[in-house]
Amino acid sequence: MNLRPTLRGWGLAGVGLALVLLAVALGSVDLARIGAVGVVLVAASAAVVAWLDAGHVRRPLTVQRLVVPNPVHAGQRTAVEVRITSTDPAGRARLAGLRFAEQAATELSAGRPLRARVHRSPGIVVVSYGVHAARRGRWPLGPLVVTRTDLFGTVASTSTLGGQASVTVWPAVSTLPAPSDVLVGEPDRVALGARSPSTDDSSLRDYREGDDLRRVHWRSSARRGELLVRSDERAGLRPVSVLLDLPHRPAHVEWTVSLAASVALAMLDAGHPVRLLDGVRGHATPTGVPFLHTRNDGARAAILDQTVDLEGPRGATEAQARVIAGAHLLETTGADGEIVLGVLGPLGAGARAALAHVVDSAQGWAMVLSDPQHAAGQRDARHTVDALRRAGWRACEVTPGEPALDCWLRLLGSAR
């Protein structure tokens, strides 16, 4: 608790003390009594305010904070409700007359005071307000700051109530059209062992990472000694790895993450098992990053959660090292015949060589960031696109800041 006299309190105490000193000098008892009244009033008010402190340990008030929705996408608003309750009479007395202020990260409040509505009822105070999620990340709300003044406005106390809550902000995403007709055409389905769909379609093929275990043909698997699955039109959907190369320029990081998240969700909605690779997570574990499936509850949320804490590299060298690590992870833990969708920046020779080997067993598609404000970056982006195409990738240039839908359609159009 921070207890202090107000400007009025300082003035009243100062005048009272001056009158006491003057009374001593003049030998006036009445003047001393008048001066003492001011000093005693401020002291008594401080004692009352301290006794009514909202954060009193013996009789704490209960604080509940509800944030809906949480998580929220960047650029959207979320509603916050803080409920302060007390069940005992002493707590209700401490609850009355309080002024409330909520603390929030700048990414939620834009650095401005939050405008809140306060609804009071016996034993309950509800503070409600809205915040704007400006940027991807995990941002704190609270604790609640409460202020009390005495009846005469001479003393004020400030204390905090409750703890902090965290608002998770996902990247802004765009709805992209289902890409299955372009990315997984008829030749690909034939290679996967899929035929025209029918109720008795039981063509068998080797199990690949991302296949539904419910489609395992256990009798044939036991006979051969390795897992076999029934193949049909739906089982022919390839696993998808979205390879994300975060730029080392901070201005482009958020747009890049949003584009990669939009692509990953589009492929997930199309029925593909999907995983997100950033060159940082996964290469310390033998199984790498697992695929997420639409049949799994919360698959969309799980993909978006993976993007919340992504940070750009500290420089171009680290960025290239991440791409190489991601390419190595694709080669060591990927499923044969998977689709790799890259959201990449201009690459150096080492990274281009690493990605060239990916398409030996996978189908590669890449969007390469080409910043028109940096001539050297544009030139490197063209070299990257040309090198990927020579290696067997489908690749196109995209401009940071342009709509994700335009980038996506340009990539799909590069197949023609």
Automatic annotation (TrEMBL):
Residue spans crossing the bilayer: 7-26, 32-52
Domain DUF58: 204-272
Source organism superkingdom: Bacteria
Cross-referenced Pfam families: DUF58
Alphabetical UniProt keywords: Membrane, Transmembrane, Transmembrane helix
Listed name of the protein: DUF58 domain-containing protein
